[in-house]
Design goal:
alpha+beta; coiled coil; 99 residues; 3 strands; 3-stranded antiparallel beta sheet
Length: 99
């Protein structure tokens, strides 16, 4: 019987990580020796503004109210992301100063 010799022609690594509260998610992929690609999302922001109600007026009123709530969620997520960037930058600076 002829021996089979396997060769890896292309390799792709995928990894999904989530914050402890499951709101922040990062999908990381890397193909071969290419630079890794990361995709960050916040699950609090997945459902876009919407309106419901018994008539058009109520739907639009609820839509506007929902938009305001969505903007507040975006601002909270943005502020949290800014704070996380500061933590990352401080950690990088600390590592660089140790060398």
């Amino acid at each position: 019987m002829k021996k089979i010799e396997w060769q890896i022609k292309d390799q792709e690594i995928k990894q999904d990580i989530a914050s402890e509260d499951n709101r922040w998610h990062i999908s990381r992929s890397q193909k071969g020796h290419d630079e890794p690609k990361l995709f960050l999302t916040n699950y609090d922001l997945l459902l876009t503004p919407h309106g419901t109600g018994k008539d058009y007026l109520e739907c639009f009123q609820n839509f506007i109210k929902n938009c305001d709530q969505y903007v507040e969620q975006i601002l909270r997520a943005k502020e949290e992301a800014k704070q996380h960037i500061l933590v990352l930058e401080n950690a990088m600076e600390k590592i660089e100063n140790e060398d």
